[in-house]
Amino acid sequence: MYKVGLSVFWCILQSPATEAQQHRFGIPSCPNTTTFTINSTYQANRDTLLSSLSSNVTRGVFFYNTTAGKSPDVVYGLFLCRGDISTSACQVCVTYAATYISRRCPLDKTAVVWYEECFLRYSNRNIFSVVTETPTIYFLSGRSSVVTISEEDRFEQFVLKVINETIAMAESRPAGVSKYVTRVENISSFQTLYIRVDCTPDLLGADCGRCLRRARAYIPAGR
Q: Worst-scoring range by mean pLDDT, 18-22, 26-30, 190-194?
């Protein structure tokens, strides 16, 4: 089985027995390149922003972006939940992410945390409707699908074909529309390919497609 997860891209090959498993750990990115001082205006704005994100997820939305404060201490922030989870699961994920990111990245002016169900990000720069490919994370599950050498090329061609078709579906959607797309393809009687792609809805379709194609390169061959 392989699993690749990024902030905008998920691709899963798994058997039905493991389909329901979820990864509950958070993966933070705290670059520590730009920091703020304790009890500063920026910290107050950051805390206000995180509170606003937590409050607005209770409205049942899966994507939300907002700002807090004024220049030069304005903070931009957003969250995105996976399109196939419940509103309550989205609320739990975002609420926990907002608390976790302030604790894990206490003095960072920009930070992001990924979960299986959502990701949350804030920055001192405008991040709305902008493609951002860094930082990037990917992770693999501990088990691999067994593919013989004679089958490997055909298998990889099939997976790439389905991924490209799924990306094209997300790319066709305009800004302001959810770009969450899923595909399910049976590979054998005991293996199913599950593909999920997503971008933040504020992106143009072309920008989403370009980002997803970059993410595609992280899928390891033969897995």
A: 18-22
Q: Are 28 and 105 in contact (CB under 8 A)?
A: yes
Residues 6+ apart with CB under 8 A from 193: 12, 13, 159, 162, 183, 184, 185, 186, 187
Which pLDDT belongs to residue 139?
61
List the chain domain ranges: 2-22+139-216, 27-123
3-state DSSP assignment of residue 161: helix
Query: Is the Cβ–Cβ distance between 175 and 201 less than 8 Å?
Result: yes
Give the burial class of 176: count Cβ atoms within 10 A of its Cβ; 0-12 exposed, 13-18 middle, 19 or more buried. exposed
Tell whether the torsion through CA atoms of 27, 133, 6 and 83 is positive or negative.
positive
Tokens of residue 12, six digits: 């899963």
* pLDDT tens-digit readout, 147-201: 444 566 777 888 889 999 999 999 999 999 999 999 998 877 777 888 899 999 9
- How far is residue 195's CA from residue 80's CA, in Å, rounded to a whole number? 18
- Nearest to 129, CA basis, from 83, 171, 168, 176: 176
CATH class given for the domain over 27-123: alpha beta
Do the Cβ atoms of 34 and 172 come closer than 8 Å?
A: no
